[in-house]
């Protein structure tokens, strides 16, 4: 009987040590880069992320289809509104945001691909323990594949590979992440956006990656 209890305890202990799907911090600030397989898009951005209020601020620059761009966008998912902001001209463009908010998280049905150390495990502070997960996401009229790497402690995003038939593979890398909001004002529309008129979308705004985020 004691042997059976011991085996059960060991089994439960092994399950507890196995990495589990997780959710990233609800409030984060940092930087990221995005590139696509077809080489049309390569961009860098500073981001402010609020999963509680479903708000994202992206200040990005890069190139799309051999043309450079610079954009400053505020995505307010609860209000269904997106602001394109220009501090240089003190102008603001307000458009509908007809997309669901997807928090940064590893889906519960994800499969663990493996665990590794980024850097070195030879000494303290020389490496970071990460978990890589893979799976599929059901989107509107299509299925997307993903492979996502997050830190073992804190579930901070590191890299994500995302594939759709339309865009091919897209790689997003996160760096300089800070848990919390470094500047909460980044998630509030500037005063000159108060009287911004609601504009209709004209075609596909392919030069930004907020739709790929």
From TrEMBL:
- In the UniProt record, the signal sequence range is 1-16
Task: Look up the domain of life of the source.
Answer: Eukaryota
Q: Which UniProt keywords apply?
A: Signal
Glycosyltransferase: is it a keyword of this entry? Answer: no
- Tell me one GO molecular function of this protein: calcium ion binding
One Pfam family linked to the record: Ependymin
Similarity annotation: Belongs to the ependymin family.
The name under which this protein is listed is: Ependymin-like 1
Species this protein is from? Fundulus heteroclitus (Killifish)
